[in-house]
């Protein structure tokens, strides 16, 4: 999407370095935008918004190109595996994704109930209380054993209720 910034002066493309760069928790990312918007953003940001440890970690991660590619490939493979497994769960409709998560529609009227059931079993997903998304959860891509636990627990919660 970055090339579109030149076509649309009001477009801002944001990218996190959390999972693909192995820097989850450091709150590192980038923004690509027109110079006019960048000037406004720089005028309102705190002067020291990235700490030195995070900056050093970011630079080291970016220098390890091979490691970055391996992490990205692992995330994509696991996302695709998770998507396939979610398609097999009765009543769950995963939305195609190019991100590090899959948005899933749950059975109508059961979104919050399923979310709470998963949370009570130690599976924490992103729930949306917005009326348009009240029957959806966002499942982040993790490790294969974490995907397996989500699928197993989701099946259990859906069958219990």
Tell me what the structure shows.
- It is a single chain.
- The chain has helices at residues 35-44, 52-63, 65-87, 111-120, 144-160; strands spanning 13-16, 29-32, 93-94, 101-105, 126-127, 136-140.
- The chain has a 4-stranded antiparallel beta sheet. Strands 1-2 form a two-stranded antiparallel sheet.
- The chain starts with 12 loop residues before the first strand and ends with a helix.
- It has 2 domains: 2-63, no CATH class; 67-160, Aspartate Aminotransferase, domain 1, CATH 3.90.1150.
- The model has no long low-confidence stretch (mean pLDDT 91).
- By secondary structure, it is of the alpha+beta class.
- β3 and β4 (101-105) form a beta hairpin.
- Helix content is 45%, strand content 14%.
- The longest helix has 23 residues, at 65-87.
Briefly, what is this?
The strands form 2 sheets. The protein has a 4-stranded antiparallel sheet.
Features:
alpha+beta, single chain, two-stranded antiparallel sheet, Aspartate Aminotransferase, domain 1, 14% strand
SSE topology sketch:
Elements: E1 13-16, E2 29-32, H1 35-44, H2 52-63, H3 65-87, E3 93-94, E4 101-105, H4 111-120, E5 126-127, E6 136-140, H5 144-160
Antiparallel strand pairs: 1-2, 3-4, 4-6, 5-6
* Number of E strands: 6
Low-confidence stretches: none
Q: How large a portion of the residues is in β-strands, by DSSP E?
A: 5-15%
The share of residues in helices is 40-55%
How would you name the CATH homologous superfamily of the largest domain?
Answer: Aspartate Aminotransferase, domain 1
């Amino acid at each position: 999407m970055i090339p579109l910034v030149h076509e649309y002066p009001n477009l801002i493309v944001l990218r996190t370095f959390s999972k693909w760069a192995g820097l989850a928790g450091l709150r590192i990312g980038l923004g690509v935008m027109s110079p006019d918007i960048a000037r406004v953003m720089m005028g309102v940001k705190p002067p020291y918004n990235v700490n030195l440890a995070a900056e050093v970690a970011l630079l080291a991660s970016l220098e390890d190109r091979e490691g970055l590619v391996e992490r990205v490939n692992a995330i994509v493979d696991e996302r695709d595996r998770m998507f396939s497994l979610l398609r097999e769960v009765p009543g769950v409709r995963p939305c195609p994704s190019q991100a590090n998560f899959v948005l899933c529609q749950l059975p109508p009227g059961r979104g919050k109930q399923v979310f709470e059931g998963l949370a009570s079993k130690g599976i924490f997903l992103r729930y949306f209380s917005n009326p348009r998304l009240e029957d959806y959860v966002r499942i982040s891509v993790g490790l294969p054993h974490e995907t397996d636990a989500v699928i197993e627990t989701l099946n259990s919660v859906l069958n219990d209720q």
